[in-house]
Design a protein that fits this description.
Rossmann fold, Arc Repressor Mutant, subunit A, binds calcium ion
């Protein structure tokens, strides 16, 4: 069930949306301010936020900015009552996925929520999907990698690094981003660690580690899995 967080200070609107979205089989959470919404995100999983711009305390623009920074996977639909806001939504490239203007028809909102969720699902690689590329087959669910049907022994970190790269074929991932995605918060060292792990990974998966075909180096930036 998809989880929607409604951030709206006007109680009648918030409660009405909660009831209607609940009937549509969404799991609905509510926050009356930006501060409350950000606090909720720390211990609730949310797929999409319906975010009012005019809020007491920090406004919807600031909430949007912070969510984009800290929770890039959460979709955001901004709610605005003013055309000036609309200019800002369009002009600032806040990273909202869509917007809707008050007063709105709640079924219009539902249609937009579904469209945004569908779009996101299509653009995100399925986390557990088996990846087959050339001689390499990676099964994230069972944590195994085969090359030419031979199992390859990887450490958990090497495995995570491999999956992260292979799930983004053709996309250059810089070292900081890889540290973030693979090492997450339990690492405070420098980006050389990434290079060391890449080298070990290449020794295990490449035919010729000095002339890699799967993991390419993008000089001065980072690494990318070959495009498919
Ligand atoms: Ca408001």
């Amino acid at each position: 069930m998809e989880r929607i967080l409604i951030v709206e200070d006007e109680k009648p609107i918030r409660e009405f949306m909660t009831i209607v979205l609940g009937r549509e089989d969404f799991h609905v959470l509510q926050a009356v301010s930006g501060e409350e919404a950000l606090a909720m995100l720390q211990d609730h999983e949310v797929d999409l936020m319906v975010l009012d711009i005019r809020l007491p305390g920090i406004d919807g623009f600031e909430v949007c900015r912070r969510v984009r920074e800290d929770y890039p996977g959460i979709a955001i639909i901004m709610v605005t009552a003013k055309s000036q806001d609309l200019d800002k939504i369009m002009g600032l490239e806040l990273g909202a996925d869509d917007y809707i203007i008050k007063p709105f028809n709640v079924y219009e909102l539902i249609a937009r929520i579904r469209a945004v969720l569908r779009r996101i699902r299509q653009s995100q690689p399925e986390k557990s999907k088996v990846i087959i590329d050339g001689q390499i087959e990676i099964s994230p669910a069972s944590h195994t990698v085969y090359k030419d049907d031979q199992i390859i022994e990887l450490t958990p970190r090497e495995f995570d690094l491999l999956v992260t790269l292979a799930q983004h074929p053709g996309v250059v991932l810089n070292r900081d981003r890889l540290l973030d995605m693979v090492w997450e918060e339990d690492y405070f060292g420098d980006t050389k660690t990434v290079d060391v792990h890449i080298r070990r990974l290449r020794e295990k998966i490449e035919d010729d580690p000095s002339d890699p075909v799967y993991i390419e180096t993008v000089w001065g930036i980072g690494y990318k899995w070959r495009a498919r």
